[in-house]
Amino acid sequence: MPQVSDTGKRNPRYYWGRIIAANLLASVIVPTVFSGLTWRTPLRPALVGVGVTFLFSSCIGLLIGLVMPHVAPLIWSRLRFPWTWAAIVGTMVTLAMVGSSIAITVLTVVGYLPPGRFFEWFFDSLKVVTLVTLTIGLFITVYETMETQLREATVALRTKERDEAEARRLAAEAQLASIESRVQPHFLFNTLNSIAALVHDDPAGAERMTGQLASLMRSALDSTATPLVPLDDELQIVRAYLDIERVRFGDRLRYAVDLGDGVAAALVPRMALQTLVENSVKYAVAPRREGGAIHVRAIAVDGRVRVSVDDDGPGFDATVRPEGHGLDLLTERLKMLFGERASLRVESRQGRTSVSIDVPSDREDVPATT
To answer: Does 214 share its domain with 150?
Structure first.
């Protein structure tokens, strides 16, 4: 198949290659059919016959190659069948006559033809030249017309594919924004409820909690422009959240945050770890009188970064995730941001629940769409 650029333009190398090939073909066929050229013909007369025919075909083919790409589109756009083909045939016959005149002039100048035989050669060659020009020229015209239609269809298809890809990207971004909008208000409402519960019994604690919330929301909003943030920044949000919850739960909430070497710059979904920690607080700490312990750790494993949130709560059935649950939302976010290059794993039993996410450690491995 001929090469087609994204703009749908003809490749000049292939176009002129076809014309040269047609000229060479004509320079062999015409002497064979009309002059009786065979393999027994002496070499000199054979070369002369082929050379003269090649001169005619080159003069005519050059004119057709230069003129028809500009004239044919005008004919197709302004005339209707059968006048289109009549106009194309007329144009080709005219170009054949002009090309023959040029070739006869060249042969006269170089001394192959004696002066005064111009019109004799012109009229003698007119029938053959016209027949060959129409046969080869119409074939090339039909081929070029079909190729042009193919190029236009290819460009249209590529444009449609790009538009569809852009639409899918915008839809994914809209879905991601929708998911994030459900995560952040959820956290905010829970925290405000905690502050409201402390207003009467512990005004000072409510005041401290309000200041911590303002600091936390400021950190979160600073990263709103990007769906991914460095792990170190995300852990600062986690610490701020846990400090807020400790105002409410006191010693019932015990936590530790460990950051391994070389993982601080890894990119993770914004507010993702806070979502996991919030689940631990909700299910492992809040329901129990003795509270619970939460351990957040990040380590490098086989060229990747694994971040886990462990708690000592009662556990749950990891195979059942209600739609809209925090883990379900986080799974969707990982899929949209990393594709198959990130994963979420849940291990839960009585007395221990661990939720971990694996993400690429190298920023160059993160998809460009993020």
So the answer is: no
